[in-house]
Amino acid sequence: MLSIRDVSTPEPPESLDEAEAESHTPTAPAYARAGVDLDRDEGFVDDIAAITRPTMRPEILSPVGGFAGLFKAPERYKNPIFVACNDGVGTKLKLAAELERYDTVGIDCVAMVVNDMIVQGAEPLVFLDYLAMNSLDPERARRALRGIAEGCRRAGCALLGGETASMPGVYQEGDIELVGFGVGVVDRDKVIDGSTISHGDTILGLASSGCHSNGYSLIREIVESAVNAGKAELRAEDEDLNTTLASALLAPTRIYVKPLLNVLRDFSIKGMIHITGGGFIGNVPRVLPNAVRARIDPDSWPRPPIFGWLQQHGEIPESEMLRVFNCGVGMLLIVDPSLEVEIIERLRALGERAYHVGTIEAREPDEPPLFFERGFIEEDTSGD
User: Fold this and answer.
1) Are residue 76 and residue 27 in the same domain, yes or no?
2) Which residues contact 136 (CB under 8 A, 6 or more apart)?
3) What confidence tens digit (pLDDT) does each residue in 334-352 have?
4) Does residue 280 fall inside a structural domain?
């Protein structure tokens, strides 16, 4: 295993692959025979420096060669509260390994963490990753880490460090594990916790890029069945999807951080909900006070075609689609209805597709916290 990565190391060799190809005598030959080549693994740390450097922020204080990363809160925060969370890519990694495409799952790794963080109103500051495989494959690891660095760039956070582990006997050849950890900051009086959500508030939805990183155990089962039956081909163009099935399924999770931080500077948002594992039913109730419920119209936004493909080929009922997947909406905002139009206009100007998808209502004790009702919101496709 490798320790916290040094982000201030010299530039890596111009041709790392050529250097790796040269024969060398391991300094720990018995360990190398067991599957862990310390010389190769430790040398890879230097290669990471060029990948992480563009993500650095002025708050990073890490010295060269440290065992941990150091950072401070930006000075503009008067009473900073730190927000920490972690998540992983999950079984989407199995599909990525099958298709030998590792760059987009690095973005997923960051997105799953920072999208959870922004719902508290927090600005992501630093990100750390855990990357593990049977035996370090430098090229696969580089592609995954470039994706992580790109995710950090999209979120505006620094890739402070991480762990790269060779674990023979734990992971099979070709397997890869990606987990992320992040820390963000928000002023104490700006923390968003849903406590002010009340009857009459409006629910806005932000479009997803696809399945994001949830439901892939079910997705892989549906795809395997369709491929084996000759009804689908991962790498072939699909007219209904307007791309290949592989590309639709590996589309990286959308990162909502920068547009939402922009909105938060000028508008009050009462609550935010990341539609992650568990779909709408598993996530919407997490932020609602006991006295209210959410009424959502699942016809009020356009669904990416991949969800129709999965529903058709998997014969999945609508209720389960909403229980497992984001179905085209990756983030919900709960706002005062007087701010609806301005916030939607701002989000669309920032490149987001935003929709009025529901409302907050008073809740009786015996009522569920989430209720779906089709067609109660007038159709609005101007954000497409």
Assistant:
1) yes
2) 37, 40, 41, 44, 164, 166
3) 999 999 999 999 999 999 9
4) yes
